[in-house]
Amino acid sequence: MDKNNELKRIGIRISYLRRLRNWDQETLATNIGITRSYVSRIESGNGIDGVPLSLYMSIADALDTPIWKLLKVDD
After folding, report:
1. DSSP secondary structure code for residue 56 in this structure
2. Which of 29, 39, 48, 75 is 20 to 30 A off residue 54, Cα-Cα?
3. Which tens digit of pLDDT belongs to each residue from 22-57?
4. pLDDT recorded at residue 17
């Protein structure tokens, strides 16, 4: 499993779910208490390493989706 690919897939899922709610990155950031630029880095999957599980849990809660949908790893 390529770690960078998985981070990008997670970011794409977050972006997709955010857009389904008609939220911009700033709205998501405000709802979970981080900056818009941090949301951007998470969604792009570029150079972001060590995102705490608790942050992914906060994102999932804000997007009203189970955590496994964000972190799902395809076989």
Report:
1. H
2. 75
3. 999 999 999 999 999 999 999 998 766 678 999 999
4. 96
Which residues contact residue 18 at a Cβ distance below 8 angstroms, ignoring those fewer than 6 apart? 24, 25, 27, 28, 43, 63
Q: What residue has token string 């989706």?
A: 65
Q: For residue 22, give the DSSP letter.
A: T
pTM of the entire predicted model: 0.88
Token pair, residue 25, equals: 């990155």
Kindly state the tokens that stand for 17.
Answer: 């779910």
H-assigned helices in the chain: 3-20, 25-32, 36-44, 53-62, 67-71
From residue 4, give the alpha-carbon distance in Å to each of 11, 38, 50.
11, 17, 12
